[in-house]
Amino acid sequence: MSINTPRKKARLPVNGDRPNGKTLASQDLQRQREQLPIAKGRDALVDEIRRNDVTILLGETGSGKTTQIPQYIIDSGIAGGGVVAVTQPRRVAATSLAARVAAEQDVQLGDLVGYSVRFDEVASPSTRIKYLSDGMLVRELLSDPILSRYSVIIVDEAHERTLRTDFLVANLKAILAKRNGGGGTHTVTNGQSDAKGKGKKRAVENPLKVIIMSATLDAEKFSRFFNNAKVLYVKGRQHPVQTFHTSVSQIDYVDAALRTFFQIHIDKGPGDVLIFLPGQEDIESLEKSIQSYTRRLPENCLNVLVYPMFAALPPAQQAKIFSSTPSGSRKCILATNIAETSITIPGIRYVIDTGKCKEKRYLSRDTGGGFDTLLTQDITKSSAMQRAGRAGREGPGFCFRLYTEDAFNAMAASAEPEIRRCSLTQSVLELKCLDYDLETVEFMDMPESEAIFSALKTLFLLGALDRTKALTHLGRSMAALPLEPYLARIVLASKAHACTAPVLDIVSILSASSKLFVDVSEARDAAAEARRKFRHPSGDHLTLRNALKAYEDLLEGGKDDMDVDDARDGMEVVQSSNHGQGQDGKKGSKASKAARREWCRANFLNEKTLMEAMKIRTQLRGNCERLGLDWRTEPAGASGEEAVLRCFVAGLQQQAAFLQPDGTYKQVVGQSIVKIHPGSTLGDRKAPAIIYDELIYTSQIYARGVSSVPRSFFSGMTSSTYGTT
Ligand code: CDP
Ligand code: MG
Q: Which of 225, 486, 614, 673 is 20–30 Å from 656 (CA)?
């Protein structure tokens, strides 16, 4: 894991910034801190945390839990010489909160306060408060199974019940038993370990404190899991929110949100608007529509500033959301459920709730899946209430629900924990690495045995487990890569096939947060035409690589080489030019940057993805070196390309379909007929077998990210290995 030495002052501006980007004096931030609802309870909270090994802390969103508690812990000396970890289900939240807290402490980001998310870490040996994605802390477990460098671990947003959070919570219970006394096994029986641990604290060398924080009223369950741990409540400062429902259901929620926004904008007084949408595509499409209608507004209307907020948004863009609204303007934030509880944006008075979110769901082999897919779904009552609450933080507000009251009443109370609905492949591999007995490990909610069986089977097919379900050497190497097991398998296969360089290129692009090929429905033909020059006859995987190589040729042709900061600046420029708020005055060779941007635009490529992929690749190269893979290995000619495809088959053997005599493709694992996505470079070409990155479920099942491969590549792994279970 790389530690980036911080070079600059916290680069994300925070709430209270002047429009010119200069941070207000830190006294101002101190004043804001003191006014947070949590500040009044500070001493009592610190006392309780000091007294208990495990504390459950419940408090309304925006009360100050995430930003303040870690600072209280450091200031009061509870952390001793250790580090305080704060986990977040979303990486955007981790980076943005770390920046805020660094500013509150008036230190550089990466010094006292840092963050660590996949493929990006800003921390140093002096970091004492570290915001991590929950997945990153799980990864740290693999190299340090008792998380010894942390003296306090705060599991934040625990109500979200992500798979990683639940996994962590299960481990923390076992770690507490180890570090605070009370038996040395992984399987802790209820009630005993903690009771023993408490009496023996003197003898403990490196005790651990765990704080579970949540925004909703599900504390009891956490408390019970941790042997009736103490539950503390922080009162928020919630103002009344007037909620409206539509009289009929809205089929096109993006259009309904657009109309509602302008009704508010024209009829209602000042105050910022927060619109909840399920994902990036809807956000970007609504952003465009709002921008275009805004230009036609009468002169006397407030100016509209639109800000998107979703997971893949680069840091410089995120920061703008927190800046205060200039007078004569109205901010309109288009967000996913990230703004529901993990991030509080000041100034919101109006909320528009589409009632939709994207949810990860495991599609079993029978329904044609065998892996997780993101599906747009109705939200839960609990989410709907959180969303409405966002309007009443600073004064009375309004929430416009784009669904009927009956629809609200029909919503599920709260979401099912991910552990009950997501693929467990990666978690089971991690449990194996940590030497757990799958039969006895204790989770808050137990996964279904069928899901565990399915994960074991996948891991066996990938070669991570042997027939006795024991971890193989290959499995251990797979877990050492910061990739999902199937992608890790592809990378590791490249050693035997001597083609690590191209494989890493492609895997890096697939690991980036946005797709490389921009999908523009209005210009599909032009995009296809432009893409033709990168086209590889085998399909999309090698086509991705061709596009990356073409971009790199351009980079080498230009004068400036790119470092990470450069890449970030680049992203910012690309983004803001889309928003019509271009920023000038960036350092570096402007012409060549502009030329690259133009080249990407003309070729319908997402430059942000290319830059992110190069950054990811740098990290993966480091991982490969540690695993004894030479990432420079570049095979030549057609046999080299065949080698690359063989690696992909090794990882995607369960994401494959064979051509049937009637011309359709039938899954190798599972029974469904899949079609090649119209956006694929393969087009209508019939290939004896295809492998794919994902399935899209519409009226049909489409395979996206497709390559054609000879059927012989599957020999030795078909029929007998694949049952139909
Ligand atoms: O965790 P909880 O929801 O209780 O609150 P928090 O995240 O600690 O936020 C406390 C305050 O810090 C809120 O008023 C936020 O608006 C503010 N904040 C901010 O201004 N900028 C950030 N990047 C993060 C938080
Ligand atoms: Mg929080």
A: 614
Residue-wise DSSP of 136-162: HHHHHHHH-TT-TTEEEEEE-SGGG--
Hey, where are the domains in the chain? 27-181+206-234, 241-418
Q: Does domain 241-418 have CATH number 3.40.640.10?
A: no
The radius of gyration of the chain from alpha carbons, rounded to an integer in Å, stands at 26
Which atom of ligand 1 lies at the shortest distance from residue 236's CA? 4
Q: Which amino acid, one-letter code, is at 493? A: A
DSSP symbols for 534-547 = G--TTBHHHHHHHH
pTM (two decimals)? 0.85
Angle in degrees, CA 314, 157, 149, rounded to 5: 85
Distance 699 CA to ligand 1 centre (A): 42
319 Cβ inside 6 Å of ligand 1: no
pLDDT of residue 336: 94
Separation in Å, CA 639 to CA 304, 436, 497, 534, 646: 56, 42, 10, 19, 10
Residue to probe by mutation, ligand 1, list 344, 386, 393, most atoms within 8 Å of CB: 344
Q: Which fold has domain 27-181+206-234?
A: Rossmann fold (3.40.50)
- pLDDT of 219-258, one tens digit each? 889 999 999 999 999 988 789 999 999 999 999 999 999 9
Q: Say yes or no: do domains 27-181+206-234 and 241-418 share a fold.
A: yes
Atom number, ligand 1, closest to the C-alpha of residue 96: 23
ipTM above 0.95, yes or no: yes
C-alpha 337 to ligand 2 mean position (Å): 13
- Rounded mean pLDDT, 549-556: 91
Distance (Å, whole) CA 722 – CA 719: 5
Whether 45 lines ligand 1, by a CB cut-off of 6 Å, is no
Rounded CA gap, 590 and 584, in Å? 9
Q: Residue 724 C-alpha to ligand 1 middle, in angstroms?
A: 50
The answer to whether residues 711 and 686 touch, using CB atoms and an 8 Å cutoff, is no
* Residue nearest atom 10 of ligand 1, based on CA coordinates: 64
